[in-house]
């Protein structure tokens, strides 16, 4: 059985990610594992942990045990395991290593964490996890409130790698009964580039059609593919945007390098980043 890994720093945002992780685990039939990374063996009280603010708890392990007790009724995977792991060291390295050696199907994490308590995901840590992970990563923003997936935006550009996200989108859409928006995006008027994008969109369409997944197609030109995608996703009230972590050098600057960071930092909609490997 596959496993979803949810990093938890006991902030409200990381607990939003946990609840979303429970939802996806139920839909995808996955084990669910929480992970907390300490900078040292010394225990610090996670004062942002509102859900158990009246509890007297002395260790990280006790906090996790309380969390499992609090949420176990919502985790409904037959023969599934809902557990936790505590690691010490560099935040992003330990999360990536836990996902790798724990054979995680995906990481689902808050893009921001508790200010003052290990500064868990503040700034570059979320991006570092995304760019170093060998498995897909969903980043959940602080504005996130929905907790379910009904509308997925799948941007398609002119790079060959852009199509690698299609099978993953198909599986999630099928399990969640979600509608997929196949969004072709480009920053040029070159008919060869546009033709290639339309061809890739048709391949995605055929793939989803064969799986009986509801979908629509749209093609948009703009100055910046990241912003074009975000604008479209907001228009259709999307629950998830799926991108590749990196694109080939021949791509038209879609989600390459700083664009992936822009997407994670600017989107209030959860972002699923899929590695090329």
Automatic annotation (TrEMBL):
The source's domain of life comes to: Bacteria
InterPro entries registered for this protein in UniProt: Rossmann-like_a/b/a_fold, Universal_stress_UspA, UspA
Q: What is this protein called?
A: UspA domain-containing protein
Domain UspA positions: 1-140, 150-273
Q: Which family does it belong to?
A: Belongs to the universal stress protein A family.
Organism expressing this protein natively: Labilibaculum antarcticum
């Amino acid at each position: 059985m596959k496993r979803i890994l949810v990093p938890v720093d006991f902030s409200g945002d990381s607990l939003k990610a946990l609840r979303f992780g429970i939802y996806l685990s139920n839909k995808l039939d996955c084990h669910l594992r929480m992970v907390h990374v300490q900078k040292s063996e010394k225990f610090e009280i996670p004062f942002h942990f509102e859900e158990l603010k009246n509890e007297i708890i002395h260790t990280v392990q006790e906090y996790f045990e309380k969390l499992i007790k609090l949420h176990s009724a919502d985790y409904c995977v037959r023969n599934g395991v809902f557990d936790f792991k505590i690691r010490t060291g560099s935040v992003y390295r330990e999360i990536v290593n836990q996902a790798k050696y724990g054979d995680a199907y995906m990481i689902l994490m808050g893009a921001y964490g508790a200010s003052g308590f290990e500064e868990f995901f503040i700034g570059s840590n979320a991006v570092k996890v995304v760019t170093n992970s060998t498995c897909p990563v969903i980043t959940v923003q602080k504005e996130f409130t929905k907790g379910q997936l009904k509308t997925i935006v799948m941007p398609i550009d002119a790079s060959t790698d852009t199509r690698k996200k299609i099978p993953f989108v198909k599986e999630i859409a099928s399990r969640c009964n979600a509608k997929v928006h196949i969004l072709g995006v480009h920053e040029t008027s070159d008919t060869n580039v546009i033709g290639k994008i339309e061809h890739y969109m048709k391949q995605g369409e055929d793939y989803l059609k064969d799986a009986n997944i509801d979908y629509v197609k749209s093609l948009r030109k703009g100055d910046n593919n990241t912003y074009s995608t975000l604008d479209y996703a907001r228009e259709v009230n999307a629950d998830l945007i799926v991108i590749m972590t990196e694109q080939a050098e021949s791509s038209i600057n879609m989600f390459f390098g700083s664009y992936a960071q822009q997407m994670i930092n600017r989107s209030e909609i959860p972002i699923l980043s899929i590695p090329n490997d």
